[in-house]
Amino acid sequence: MLKYLAVFTISSLVALSMLSCAEPENVTLWTDIPEFALYGEAFNASQTKYKVETHYFELTAKKLSSMVEQPDIVVGRWLKSASTRHLFKPLDWILKDNSLDGSLFYPKLLELGVVDDEQYLLPVSFNVPALVFARDNSALMTNYFTISLEETKALGKAYNVINRGAYTRIGFSPDWDDDFLFVSAALLNVDFREGSPMSWDVDALEKALEYDKAWIRESNVSIQTVDDFTFKYFFEPPVKLILQGRILFSYMNSSEIFTLDYDQQSNLDFRWLAEKERIPLSEDTVYYGLYQQGRLGKGAEAFTKWFFQTETQRLLLENNKKFQLNTILFGIAGGFSAMRNVTEEVFPRFYPSLLGHMPPDAFLSPPNVLPQNWLAVKERIILPYMREYIRASQEDEEEADYAPVQELRPLADRITDWYRINK
């Protein structure tokens, strides 16, 4: 909410600075990305023929599937789901007439916007999972770009310190962050995707969660040991615990890292999480489309061509800096730009710690097509299931000093029940 209010306050200031001599053609843009209010006003200020009107919705994909009104442009997450992908116009014309150079985009991200061999959606931005640690510990890492699960486990265990029978330092525990549990599952090929209603590799999910359970047991004795440490020390935020030397790693994605305050960023380093030369991108990758029933007016075309230009995105990054929004907004639409030259050449000018740290292009692995209500399913069903699973006792843990939980209901049954109730 703070991000939403700040962006729309600044966009209002930009709008007040505009002068127009003639009535412009209106363009309606729907989005769940607050930054597009700023982008719309920057476009409006750059010319007088067209005016973009930005409408924010918490989940644009859901709004599209139940709407009466008709936007011209749609920007948001989970737009390629079965319930929404048929709502867009093909965009091949804008790539073929040299208005946009398709080779400027990360190829795998561009490919994800293809439906039936036609380009229906253009990628806007993405985020990358990472582990952060104190800069003083950088020499412990074996790779300057990435870190694997096994290396994280080994370094975390070596960092542990026990004093008078209790841990006073723990390098890392998978259960400290639900998103880490999910990313570790993605790294181990669980492969969540849209199905009827959801599909995934059941065996891979069990192996991934067993891996996390074994990690906790082998590195940190038990979940109860970790709980005791967490209760004692985690009244402080993880970044502060890292800088105090209390823990070695904390999980963050790229957006979180680069919206930390300057003092924290200057004392931290990071590595992208990778496994077998693959970095799973966040599922909330942002895409851009022209609505099927919207007007294909000159205004929508002009905004599209304007936004996907290197110089435009450099200007938008400059505006973030000018209005001092860097502590709440990262990059383009909250992530790395899907335009490769912008991310690789322009971003390091605004985020110097990216120099020599860019995620390897060949490693980037976009998410699968997911349903438009994916976020609710993930937060209410999948993550709670993962948390419960790693706390469940096994037959060989009868002597563990924490109480076993009841047998878990299968994830498939939980998801089926949720969809039955939330049609």
Descriptive notes:
There is one protein chain. With about 425 residues, this protein is α/β, with parallel strands linked by helices. The chain has 2 domains: about 200 residues, D-Maltodextrin-Binding Protein, domain 2, CATH 3.40.190.10; about 210 residues, 3-Layer(aba) Sandwich (D-Maltodextrin-Binding Protein, domain 2), CATH 3.40.190.10. Helix content is about 40%, strand content about 15%. It is built from 17 helices and 18 strands. The strands form 6 sheets. Strands 2-1-3-16-6-17 form a 6-stranded mixed β-sheet. About 5% of the residues have low confidence.
Show the helix and strand layout:
Elements: H1 2-16, E1 25-31, H2 35-46, E2 50-56, H3 60-64, E3 73-77, H4 92-96, H5 107-112, E4 114-115, E5 118-119, E6 122-126, E7 129-134, E8 146-147, H6 149-159, E9 161-163, E10 166-169, H7 178-187, E11 193-194, E12 198-199, H8 202-220, H9 223-233, H10 238-244, E13 250-253, H11 254-257, H12 262-266, E14 268-273, E15 279-280, E16 286-290, H13 298-307, H14 310-322, E17 336-337, H15 340-350, E18 364-365, H16 374-391, H17 411-421
Parallel strand pairs: 1-2, 1-3, 8-14, 15-18
Antiparallel strand pairs: 3-16, 4-5, 6-16, 6-17, 7-13, 7-14, 9-10, 11-12
Spell out the key features of this protein.
423 residues; alpha/beta; D-Maltodextrin-Binding Protein, domain 2; 2 domains; four-stranded mixed β-sheet; 17 helices; 41% helix
